[in-house]
Amino acid sequence: MKVLDFERAEIIDVDESQLIDPADLPGGEEEAEYEVLKFKKNLADMKKNEATRAKAEKIEALMEELRVKSYEEQQETENEEESYTPSMTYGVPREEFLKENKPEYYKRLVESGTLLDHLKSIDKRAFEMEENMIERQCEIEGVNDELKRTDRMKWVRMYNLIRHEVRSFILRDMIYI
C-alpha cells in the first residue's frame, strides 16, 4: 500500500500489516482524528514559514496524487464488478437454463442481487475446468507441439474434437443441472 512519509516528503510502499487501525489507538477514533488535525496544522504552519514552504507544497502535491490514485483504483474495482457480462459459452446458457428449468431459484438469485455473482462463479469454474480437462486430454491423446509441427491439420482436428467433447461434458454436468 502506498502512504505518505511526512518526514521525508515522499510516497512509500508499506505492508498493510504495518498500519495502525485507529480503533487500536489508546484514544480510539478520537485520537486518530486529533492526529489528522495536528498533521493539517503542522502543514499549515510549514506553508507560513519561508524555509519549509516548498516541502509543504510538495507534501500537498503528494497527498493529492495519493487521493487521485486511490480514487482511480476504487473506480477500476467498481468498473470491473459492474462490467461483468456472462460468457456465451457458459454464463448465458446457465442463465437460460435457470430461467426455464428452475424459475424459483432464478427469481431468488435476481431478487437477492446475486445472479451476476452466481454466473461469474460458474463461468470462472467452468473455464478453469475446461482448461485443465483439455490439457489432460491432449496429453493422453498425444495432441502436442510435435504433432502441431508435423501435421498441423491433424492437430487442429484433434484439438477441436477434444475441446468440443470437454465443453459438452461441462455443459451437461455443470451448467444444465
Order of helix and strand elements from N to C terminus: EEHHHHHHH
Report the mean per-residue pLDDT as an integer: 82
- Low-confidence segments, given as residue ranges, are none
Overall number of strands: 2
- Determine the N-to-C terminus distance: 43 Å
Shape: elongated
Count the DSSP helices: 7
- Biggest sheet: strands, sense, closure? 2 strands, antiparallel
What is the count of structural domains?
A: 2
Proportion of residues in extended strands: under 5%
Helix content class: over 70%
Radius of gyration: 28 Å
Structural class designation:
mainly alpha
What topology, given as strand order, has the largest sheet?
Answer: 1-2
Describe this structure in words.
With 177 residues, the protein is mostly helical. It has two domains: 2-82, no CATH class; 91-175, no CATH class. The protein is built from seven helices and two strands; from the N terminus they run E-E-H-H-H-H-H-H-H. It has helices at residues 28-48, 53-82, 91-101, 103-112, 115-141, 145-150, 152-175; strands at 2-5, 10-13. The chain has a two-stranded antiparallel sheet. A hairpin with a 4-residue loop joins strand 1 and strand 2 (10-13). The model has no long low-confidence stretch (mean pLDDT 82).
